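User: Structure tokens for both sequences below?

Assistant:
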Amino acid sequence: MRNMLLTFDPQAQITADAEQGFVFEVLTFEHGERGFSAIGRFSGSDSVLEERLIDCEIGDPRYPEADLDRRIRERIRLLCLRLMTRATGQTASPWGILTGIRPTKMYFYLSALGFSADEIRERLVAVYGLTPAKADLVRAVAQVEKPFLNNPADQVGIYIGIPFCPTRCHYCSFASYPLSTHGHHVPRFLEALAREIQAVSACLQSTGLKVNCLYVGGGTPTALPDDAFESLMHLLPQSFRIPAQGEFTIEAGRPDTISPRKAMIIKAAGANRVSVNPQTMHDKTLAIIGRGHTAAEVCRAVECIRAAGIATLNMDLIAGLPGETRDDMAQTLAAIQKLAPENLTVHTLAIKRAAQWRHNLADYDLPSADETAAMVELAAQVASRMGMHPYYLYRQRFILANLENLGFSLPGNESPYNIQMIEERQTVVGLGGGGVTRLVRPESGKIERLFNPKCPATYVSRIEEIISGKVKSIESLFH
């Protein structure tokens, strides 16, 4: 359905494909001490369907009264979802009416109100329309995340954005510029980044803040020339002291950027986690999506990381790539299993507006929703056989089959940074190209966001303004 208009007003029509005469209506609803009830109707060209929803739990006294309007809207959305499912004959999203990118936030919201894990699971299914499997997934992930969310208020994370890559993958929507066209910006970008690092480091020290995780992403940081990369890796541990139990991650997403020297530079800097991201282990698919490397190069990159003695290896895969089937995913997973990473992140392909292939998506043979879902399920089964559990979860707009992205980890190898980015309980200061700072007020949880420019040239030209605004914001929040 297109042009869907969902309104709270029961007198308003909820319409889809109005030019074809399809109309959704909420005829009536009421709520009170006994609960909530509503009737909805779908009128098509040759049929009329009605659905009634009765919900007795909306009046649970653990809910705040101020939240009533939102809860009423949720029930109406569930009613409409049921009607649309009947009217179209299509399977509803396994995530029901949840459209946000952080499903676990609903779990923690209900937990904070005093609902038990079993009660939350029941509500995720009955009120929000999740399938039992997705409700179980949310509960499992939230229970792993919970111990990571009680950090002291004086702890922060750091993100460093390096917006350069060897080439730009066709599906990519990140701050990433090919070195072939933007490589001349690297020296001045790194000079500006060094100034920002030093200024933020001084600010954190003056405010008594401690860094518990440092994540260097992009782009592909390891795409930098060896000497430039080494200088950056030397500066970071000098500027941000990470405790022994903290996380220091380097995104080395493109395997063709990893060499024995790069791996040893990473180890010497004290990094304890590296991402090497094949996305698939099929050379044909790698060529189609513009990755610019082979499956053999993935294996060589992993050998470099292992030889350097870096503690934790993460590998990213994408389910739903053009031309692939569940059998292709099975072959990729078999190859990954031999490489034995401590973390495995399984993304479902999302068609972002900023991606190159958004303009000619019809030219690509994307798998069906059922096939994509089978790939995701297979990946979860293999991760379980590898001894991993799911530990963080998020969704994206325009994601195939309305599925999710899911991180798996061997116990004790979870990425606290990934958890904090999803749950937004801790301040993360973003530096460099495309870095996003999330300032979290300890007393209220309210978030203020500051955005660094993605373009390297713009970042360089505005660096003094960026530093000044960021330092003032940090000082005002933590003084």
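Moving on to the next sequence.
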Amino acid sequence: MKNLRTSVESYRHDTEDAEADTKHELAGLVGRLRIDGTLVLPESATVDSRGRSKELVECDFYHELTLFAESPILHITTGFENEAQDHRLRILFPSNTGAKTSSADSMFDVIERPATPEDGEDWKQPAASTCPLRSFVSVSSNERGLTIATKGLLEFELLEQRGGTLALTLLRSVGWLSRITMKSRPEAAGPILEIPGAQCLGSHKFDYAIIPHSGRWLENESYLESDKYLNQMIGTFVPKGDDDSATLSKGFLSIKPSTIRLSAFKISEDTESVVLRLWNIAEKSESCSITLGFPVSAVEMARLDETVDDTQSLRLKNETEIEIDVPSRRIVTILLKPR
């Protein structure tokens, strides 16, 4: 295996020209591919933080790609042995969609952002090109799309190269809490304290998934595939009992349509009611049907603090079925009183 050719004059290094060892296996309904390689990087920034050191370090990495039969989700685990300081590690996903905007979920919303943000009037610092996500980010055209789901990786950037490329941040190594030499702001963001532990040296493992699809994320419902990735099914073998009629499982909640997302299903903080909190991911109002796996004697609309809200209404069809209209991007909280 050969190391990646690098130039210490360049601030950017990638694995595009690197030679790597690959091996694959197919076991029943699961296929796996492993890629091992080494990324050669400058050891650190220069003392004045305006360049990179001429000393190089080798950072071993691997990718494990797993694909299950009949699943559109490509599971990826990346391992990285970080020996370098003062750098950002990202993985790039060219989409060839021509996308000029990205859509990423946040708390109770999915936000569309341009690839090149515009500065506001009289801003003291330029608008950041990186953006936050909660669990997925998507780019698309009318014909094709690409959604990336992540476990704890919360920063991305949409680059215009190669038809719209999603750059997912895996690692950000820094040695100071704040600096005054940054191009991104004219002043320090906080105390100028050295924090060597934030260089994140050592072994790291990252989990994320690629979900290609046709059309746009909302119409294709790629957010449901993201849910499947983040909340995977767990199989358990149960020994045969004496009674074949025994019930081994029971559903407690069903929500339709899929654009109505579940946020909370819990016991109330102050009462004995069950709290059901939903929000509408769609761009239009949705008529929501809720089916419960237990009977209720009463239901009430509530605010986020779980106090009763008489200004909103819902319909209790029977002791297990509820109907409610949920406006676009709206959060609704329902108090259920089990019978």
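User: Anything stand out in the second?

Assistant: The longest strand covers residues 30-42.
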